[in-house]
């Protein structure tokens, strides 16, 4: 039985989704897959190759509202749906080769992975992954999950989650021998409102550890 769910955040990017699926074929029997569709213009279930999704045993969840910059909501829904001990949150423009998934699995099986840490990964030209992270589902909820108050503007979702984890003494480790690949250079994003999220983050850090969790304040469904 798999101990890891790969949770992919998806939004209007069907082209790159197929590149993910091609990678997933190589390790389809080793981990669980889920795609969280963040209110895309077209329903993913209307575009997919059903036979391929059945072959890979992928679960699809859809947020039925196109909420601007709803990354925290997407990640929280992924954790709600996750049935394994570990959840590997993956950004849409990043992916893993089979050899690196095998390294992660081997580290878990040989107790090189610590339940009381969370993990980032190496990537070419960068110190570590930012939003592509792995942690136990228990620690995700204990730290307070992603803060959905930061949706609506770009940025600071992952830095705040890191601070929440540190506040419950769950420290980060970067697996330097596990590489996260990049489909292309990070795209230019509309970062308008970024400073607003930054100010929110600093206010919230002062109140850690988090006392309550408010999540999934939107309509969603399991669509596959």
Explain this structure to me?
The chain has 224 residues and is an alpha/beta fold. It has a single domain (4-222), classed as Spore Coat Polysaccharide Biosynthesis Protein SpsA, Chain A (Alpha-Beta Complex), CATH 3.90.550.10. 31% of the residues lie in helices and 22% in strands. The protein has helices spanning 14-24, 50-56, 71-81, 98-109, 137-142, 157-167, 194-205, and strands spanning 4-10, 32-37, 58-63, 86-90, 94-95, 117-122, 133-136, 171-179, 181-182, 220-222. It has a six-stranded mixed sheet, sandwiched between helices. Helix 1 (14-24) links the parallel strand 1 and strand 2 (32-37). Helix 6 packs parallel to helix 7. The longest helix is centred in the middle third of the chain and has 12 residues, at 98-109. The chain is globular and about 50 Å long. The model has no long low-confidence stretch (mean pLDDT 94).
**Unreliable runs:** none
Q: In the CATH classification, which architecture applies?
A: Alpha-Beta Complex
The outline comes out as globular
CATH topology: Spore Coat Polysaccharide Biosynthesis Protein SpsA, Chain A
Distance between the termini: 21 Å
- The DSSP helix count reads 7
Helix content: 25-40%
Estimated structural class: alpha/beta
Strand content: 15-25%
Strand and helix order: EHEHEHEEHEEHHEEHE
